[in-house]
Amino acid sequence: MTQKPSGAFVAASWVALLLGFVGFNIGLWNATMQLNEKGYYFTVLMYGLFSAVSVQKCVRDRLEGIPVTDLYYGISWVSILLTILLLTVGLWNATILPSEKGFYAFAFLLAIFGAITVQKNTRDAQAAKNSVKPAGEVSNH
């Protein structure tokens, strides 16, 4: 039986996701870089969020015995690692202050962490909901 995540953990996960996502995008909005650079960083963020959720889902599915193809599992891991590499290369070569580079790196990682934990909480809450027995039903355990 899966335990439902606490309200505090659910809230903290959503706060991490929103702070990372909104902070990263406010930084992009206010940045003096060209629009194509802003588009690059925004695309890396969105791809990173998607791939983080995909990795979390694949790992969880495999732990629960739900079939996941090796190809999709591998693509998910390559995708998350690729987004980190793309962000690193982009920031390494960017003509922005080192403090701005750090801001984008940590906002990105916070958003990725938030996406993973929100996905985990959603999955745990659903599993807990599905494992609740109707009133009067007796378990055989």
Automatic annotation (TrEMBL):
UniProt keyword annotations, A-Z: Membrane, Transmembrane, Transmembrane helix
InterPro entries in the cross-refs: YiaA-like (IPR038972), YiaAB (IPR008024)
All residue ranges annotated as the YiaAB two helix domain in the record: 9-61, 72-124
A GO CC term assigned to this protein in UniProt: plasma membrane
Any one GO biological process: DNA damage response
Protein name per its UniProtKB record: YiaAB two helix domain-containing protein
Transmembrane portions of the chain: 7-28, 40-59, 71-96, 102-119
